């Protein structure tokens, strides 16, 4: 387990399994979790024996996206400091050299979906739902998704997901090209780890070079992430976003 406590890491046989483990909050990502994720990925990148990362959530929840309470706090003044762990994480995603395999069961909201555009293989249970309600929250797409989603899904589906905020089922995401295979709930993690092990068993240099070639030039992606961040930071403090965050938290408090 990392210092963040709610990110669990198990590294064996060349596979670095990283789990978001804040189940009671549906794996909503707090600042400490972003830091924990960065530490877990960075340590796997540094470790010569590690070949592949696997990213998992918990039963029924891959991630409910950024912690909305944190968003509210950042928009209220401590923006640069408060957002540092998020910024570090989205920048790191574009720089990872080793393949990432994701296993998704259930909710994948916001960055819970956009992180998947950085994964090389994605396995999802049939009950998984992918959604990015950025615009409804007064926000804009992040983590390079404004570039990667149109590339991966085509413009029409990317706009429907990112701007209209339409949730996509696992079957639809498989047809759209983000998900490799839809599997039974109880098979998600084993399927992801098995794929990671297959990758980890391949000649290491050839694996790294092949991933780099298939991904192509990431400089443009890095630039897009920075452009998104500039707008995202401006939006966080906007009256539209602050009202949406408050509405969510008040709804939760009165339920
Ligand atoms: N930020 C902060 N807390 C969150 C959260 C988030 N993004 N998502 C869920 N939680 C919390 C809830 O407040 C609740 O906490 P509580 O038990 O202390 O009240 C707990 O996690 C369980 O969530 P709940 O809403 O009861 O589960 P649900 O299955 O009914 O609904 C969601 C799950 C994800 C649909 C709903 O929680 C939601 O819409 N979350 C916000 C998602 C979002 O907009 N993320 C940001 C994207 S940019």
> For the residues shown, what is the average pLDDT?
94
Radius of gyration based on Cα positions: 17 Å
Amino-to-carboxy terminus distance: 33 Å
Q: Element order, helices and strands?
A: EEHEEHHHEEHEEHHEHEHHHH
Order of strands in the sheet with most strands: 1-2-3-5-7-10
The CATH top-level class label: Alpha Beta
What's the quick description here?
By secondary structure, the protein is of the alpha/beta class. The protein is built from 12 helices and 10 strands. Strand 2 (15-20), helix 1 (31-46) and strand 3 form a beta-alpha-beta unit.
Tags for this model:
globular, 2-enoyl-CoA Hydratase, Chain A, domain 1, six-stranded mixed sheet, alpha/beta, binds coenzyme A, 51% helix, 255 residues
What does this structure look like?
This protein is of the alpha/beta class and 255 residues long. The protein has a single domain, classed as 2-enoyl-CoA Hydratase, Chain A, domain 1, CATH 3.90.226.10. The protein has a six-stranded mixed sheet with strand order 1-2-3-5-7-10, sandwiched between helices. The chain has a four-stranded mixed sheet with strand order 4-6-8-9. The two termini are 33 Å apart.
């Amino acid at each position: 387990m990392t210092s963040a406590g709610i990110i669990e890491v198990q590294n064996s046989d060349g596979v670095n399994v990283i789990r978001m483990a804040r189940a009671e909050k549906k794996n909503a990502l707090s600042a400490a979790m972003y830091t924990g994720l960065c530490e877990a990925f960075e340590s796997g990148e540094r470790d010569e024996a590690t070949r592949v990362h696997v990213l998992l959530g918990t039963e029924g929840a891959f991630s409910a996206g950024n912690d909305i309470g944190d968003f509210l706090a950042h928009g209220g003044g401590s923006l640069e400091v408060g957002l540092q762990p998020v910024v570090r994480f989205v920048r790191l995603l574009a720089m990872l050299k080793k393949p990432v395999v994701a296993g998704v069961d259930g909710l994948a909201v916001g960055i819970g979906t956009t992180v998947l555009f950085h994964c090389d293989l994605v396995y999802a249970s049939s009950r998984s739902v992918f959604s990015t309600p950025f615009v409804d929250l007064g926000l804009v797409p992040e983590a390079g998704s404004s570039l990667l989603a149109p590339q991966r899904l085509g413009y029409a589906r990317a706009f429907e997901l990112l701007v209209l905020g339409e949730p996509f089922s696992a079957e639809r995401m498989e047809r759209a090209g983000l998900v490799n295979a839809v599997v039974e709930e109880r098979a998600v993690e084993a399927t992801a780890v098995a794929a990671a092990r297959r990758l980890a068993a391949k000649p290491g240099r050839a694996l790294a070079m092949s991933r780099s070639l298939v991904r192509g030039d990431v400089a443009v992606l890095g630039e897009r992430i920075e452009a998104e961040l500039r707008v995202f930071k401006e939006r966080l403090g906007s009256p539209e976003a602050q009202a949406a965050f408050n509405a969510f938290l008040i709804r939760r408090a009165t339920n």
